[in-house]
Design brief:
The chain is mainly alpha-helical. The chain has 6 helices and 2 strands. It has a two-stranded antiparallel sheet. The protein is flat. The protein starts with a strand and ends in a 7-residue tail after the last helix.
């Protein structure tokens, strides 16, 4: 725990800085305690925020990559048309938003917990590129996607590693 403030006698008061600290402090209060409820709600809110930012980062990243691919295909078929570069600029802008969401996610979770979930982007890109661009699906690619999904199941069952 961090010692960030003092009580009236000048003694440091330990304030919780991690989820584990919050849970420890919250569990020391009775279930009906206002402070205990507030601390438990704060831990829940941080978890929801972290997972929401993680999901947004993954989805925005997938959308950005699809837009970049679409823009490159358009430019390849009609080179020299400046308006087609807007797809690429839009893809890059959405990728920047995804990066911002990723930073929010990292403020809530350990990197070792959050990063493996980016593997979900492989799965989503695999499906979307097959549907939108007609990419081929081989047995090896499909098997690899299933292994990624299995790994995500194992990781999601572990601790959240919240910071």
């Amino acid at each position: 725990m961090n010692n960030l403030s003092n009580d009236p006698t000048g003694e440091p008061i330990g304030l919780p800085s991690t989820q584990e600290d919050c849970i420890t402090v919250a569990s020391s209060f009775s279930k009906d305690s206002v402070l205990g409820t507030m601390l438990k709600d704060a831990v829940f809110s941080r978890t929801v925020l972290g997972h929401s930012a993680l999901l947004a980062s993954i989805l925005l990243g997938v959308i950005s990559h699809l837009l970049l691919k679409f823009g490159i295909l358009q430019i390849a078929t009609s080179p020299g048309i400046l308006g087609l570069y807007l797809w690429i600029v839009l893809g890059l802008a959405i990728y920047a938003l995804a990066t911002g969401c990723w930073m929010v996610c990292l403020s809530c979770f350990d990197l070792s917990y959050a990063y493996p979930f980016t593997g979900l982007s492989y799965v989503l890109i695999f499906i979307a590129s097959w549907l939108l661009f007609g990419d081929s699906i081989s047995f090896q690619r499909f098997g690899g996607i299933l292994l990624i999904c299995l790994g995500l199941v194992f990781i999601s069952k572990g601790e959240h590693g919240q910071t």
